[in-house]
Every structure is written in structure tokens, then in C-alpha cells.
Here is the input.
Amino acid sequence: MEYADVRSPHVRARTGATTPAVIAAALRLSAVRCRHGRLIAVDGVDLTLAPGEHLAITGTNGSGKSTLLRAVLGLHRETTGVIEVAGRQARGTADWRRRRAEVAWIPQRQGAGRFPLLVKELLDSGGHLDEAIAAAERLGVAGLLDRTLGTLSGGQLQRAYLARALGQVAAGAELVLADEPTAALDFAGQEQVAEVLAGLAAAVVVVTHDRVVAAACGRVAEMAAGRLREVR
Amino acid sequence: MNSLGVLLDLPSVRLALLALVLGSVALPIVGVFIVGLDIMPVRFAMMHVALLGIAIGLLTGLDPLLCALVLCAVTGGSLTPLARSGTGLSGAMGLLMTLAIAAALLVLSISGVNANGAFELLWGSILATRPGDVVALGLLAVLVPLLYGLRRRDLGLLLHDRELALCSGVAVERLTLILLVVIAVAIASAIRLTGALLVDALTLLPALAARRVGRSLPSMIRWSVLFGLAFNVGGFLLALLFDLPPGPTLVLVGGACTLLLHSIPERGLTR
Ligand SMILES: Nc1ncnc2c1ncn2[C@@H]1O[C@H](COP(=O)(O)OP(=O)(O)O)[C@@H](O)[C@H]1O
Ligand SMILES: [Mg+2]
Here is the structure.
């Protein structure tokens, strides 16, 4: 699906778009199906997200939300259907590399790592260390740069991963996939993260049970038993 | 008690010491990779694959240890697809181990060689170190730190979390392939020094000790090499002094030190 390019002419000129100006959807899913062996975790999901649009996905535990996000990144092998980011499907290794560079991800299970990784190494891995550190400062975790991920609290870890994602956006990612990014946060943290996500110019898909975060998104969808239903 | 000075004049003792020092550079780093990838069973599998390589060597008349080295490298590389799932590698090792030993026994019986001859090679002997072994360990001593130096960022991410590495632009498949081949070759070359049963002393013990004190990948790498040198050279000299078998002695020295380190309460260590 394509959109009329509503960006101002000078932005269009800078990005090299020619008239008639149309740009691809930030994310397009068509008949996406994911299995875990015999279990069908995602069952025929269709979705189109315009550039800069923000979508919240709610739904019960085990309804397939995380699996769907992971499928977009090519981290879930048993996936069929069409998944396009910025109008491109990923087929070979190089495509997936590009996909993972243009999509920022905040995983649900963070720091599952067996091996020590420093916070600053995590921030650096997003491709834009300076911006990630600036984000870490705003999120109050810049004092932890030399700590290993394993020594952080759940909330600190989530803030560090969010800072990494903001670095990815600064490095050019135009889609952010956030999987329950406020699950471990205090109330103030939830509001702050909702605000940070809302302020992003990139397209955002955020899986959340947090009303504040959902309210800040232009669209809300609910996932149930592998199917996605638009609520708002 | 023996006089160290006299013993150190013996060429075989010097060669052994050189091999141990060289081995202490590369092998503990490889141990850190093994611990990081959580594939300790790979070492048991490689030991059996090495035995198969030796058997093939005896059958064909080629250098048995070279056969072991090459077979380990090939097997290590072909395991890469299994590394995609977290538990894939560990689980498959049991199968590989069993198949390798069965194949080895079959080849040995076909070749008409007494199986004990092959097993003897697996016991290894530091004092029987040949110049070829020293060259292999020397190459590893250059290549492994080089690999670490060039791919430090990628290795840190991969060892921490495969998916984070994938999403950070790391060529995960290629790096895993390189690591598995390096691990396999390192284990095969280390077998010569202490024998297959004691290979852990050179790889895993320093890595486990380093894990206790190092809090990031670079510091763990440094500590592992330091511990490796201390355990191996210390154990070897002790064995010479008291006329003990070198292999078991340096394993016990390393094991005791690692245990000691792990029994010190966390706060007692600078972290
Ligand atoms: N690694 C896995 N192996 C097998 N089943 C899984 C695995 N991960 C998730 N599942 C199953 O897939 C379904 C969807 O999981 P998930 O996408 O994590 O749900 P959500 O994020 O909505 O809570 C659940 O039934 C879950 O049990
Ligand atoms: Mg989930």
C-alpha cells in the first residue's frame, strides 16, 4: 500500500523523492502466520501502518504479540505471509541485515544474556552511541554506563534498552517495535516512557498493558488467540 | 625433590614448557568462548571426534593427529546451523559423541590396529611434545587473540545474546562458524599436551576462574590468560620438582585454584 507523501516539499527534496510523491507504508503485514511447532501463535494477521503512525497492541498473555514482533525482525523462523518494512520484503541474509538496522526493537525479555555486557556496550550496539547516551541521560540511566546488564534492576534495564532503541532511531530506523517497554517501570517511569514514545517521529508498534502508553497512541488493536482486531 | 635447573636444561622439558606457555595464551580465551556460548559438551564431543580422526589416520597411514585436527575443524564448522537454537548445540553433542566413538571403534577394527594404541594418543604427554605441536599452538596463540582483537564488539554481543547480536548488525552465522572451528581446532591441539581427558585444565578451568573475577569480556579474557599461565606453568614446575605426572598435576593445581576462587565470598573480590 502506498501513501500520498504529506511531508513538506523541502523534506521531500532532501530525501530525494520525486513527484508524484508516494511513500511506502512503514509496516505492512498480510496473512502473517507464525507457528511454534504445532501451536499456531499468530493466525493470519493483516496490518498497515503509515510512516510515523503509532499503534498499541494489547491482549492476553500468550496471544502471540511477542511472536508477531519477532517475526518482523526475522527472529521467528516458522513464519509465512508477507512482511514489508518501508515497502521491502526481506528474503536473503543481506535483506534481513538491512531490516534489523531499520527497525528498532525493545525485546520483552531483556538481558537474558549468559555473558556480561556493559550498559555502554549495549547502547553502542544500536549504531548511534552519542544519541543513545543522550537518551540514557534523559531516562536517568546515564550513571550506569560501566555497569553490566546483569547488575541492573528490571526498570533500569528497560530504560537502557529504550535508550538503545532511541539511538537506533537516530541512526536511521523508521520503525520502533517495543514489547511491553513499561512492564518493570514505576508510575513516573511509565509516564515518561509513554511521553518519549509519543514524541517519536518514527512509526511505533508498542505491545502494552499500560493504559497511559496505549492512550498516547493514535491506534489501538487487540490480539486474541493469534488474531489482531483493531479497537480504535 | 628434583633440581629444576638440571631438568630445565633438557630439550624435551623446554619444548614442553614452550608449548604450555603458548597454549596458555590461546586456549583459555577459547575456554571463555566455550563458556560464553554455553557449549561445554562440545568439548566432550570434540574429544571423541578427535579419536575418530586418529583412527582414520591409523587406517590410512596419514598423520593421526593431523587427521584429528582436520576432522575436528570440519565437524565444528558443520555444527553452526545447530547454534541457532539455544539448546540445539548442547543436545546434539551427545549424539555426535556417541556416533563418533562408534565410528572410531569401527574404523579401528577395520584397520586392525589395537584400539589401545589410539587411546594412548588420547592420553597425551606433555614431555612427548613435538615441534609440530608447538607450531600449532603458536599459530593459535597468534590467531585467537587476533580474532578477539578484531571482533571484540561482535563477540561481546554474540556471547551475551545471539538475538541482540543479530539485531546489531553482527554477522552471527559467520562468527559462530569461525568460533566453532577455532574451538574444535584448539581442543584437538590441546589434546596433545594433557590428553583428551584433561583438556579442560587448559581451556575451561582458566575461563571459569576468570568468570569469577572479570566483570566484562575484556577483563575476563585478560584474567583467563593470566590464570592459564599460572595454572599451567605452576603445575608443570611442581610436577617436575616432585617427580609427578605433569598432566594430572597441573589439572589439580588449576582445579584447586578455581575452587578456591569460587569459595571466596563475592564481596572479597574487587568487582
Ligand atoms: N519458544 C517457544 N516455544 C513454544 N511455544 C512458544 C514459544 N514462545 C512462545 N510460545 C507460545 O506461543 C504463544 C504466543 O506467545 P507470545 O507471542 O510470547 O505471547 P504474548 O507475547 O502475547 O504473551 C503462547 O502460547 C506461547 O506459549
Ligand atoms: Mg509477550
